Amino acid sequence: MDMQKVVSKRVVPVAVIEDAEHALPLAEALLAGGLGVIEVTLRTPAAEEALARIRKAHPDFILGAGTILEPDQARRMAELGVDFGVSPGLRAEVVEAAHAAGLAFIPGVATATEIEAALALDCRVLKFFPASLLGGVPMIEALAAPYRHREVRFVPLGGVNQATMGEYLACKDVAAIGGSWLVTRDLLNAGNWKEITRRVADAVAVAVASDR
To answer: Cys bridge to 17: 35, 50, 163, 178, which one at CB 3.0-4.6 A?
Structure first.
């Protein structure tokens, strides 16, 4: 999938799904709020089944897998029909496996050295994590300055929330934000789909306003 489509909504909900039965109600809640995109982290035994269920029920959903740490995981996600992969850091073998399998990939970076390593692997949309602890928007702008001519853009995650997302989205170096506050474990485990929809709708409204 073209990376521009992945970040086109400018908000990517990030979910840790512990029960695959939550996958479809969650997808419906996101769609009701105005977002047909998700990153499901591969931190639980239920994650792959959850991804498979969403892909089968919603072929047009922009489906991402996060916390990809090994080349085999990248290959499996491509076989599963996932559209994009994300990792917290940058490992060349993982990125190369993802690209070889046709999986769009967003590696994590925190330094100029890692940005240059990502560029060498033909990655220009990069996860900035953990964003708030690394300095937030001022740090993104400082890191981006030497690489704007190479079309580097960031997807910050970690400490981004409803109160701060507007500041991030107003930054020209930010392609999209990752939103773990939109789909918390407590909301998932409680089956509080209405609250997830509300949070997503609020985030979409901020994203739309930031693009005007």
So the answer is: 50
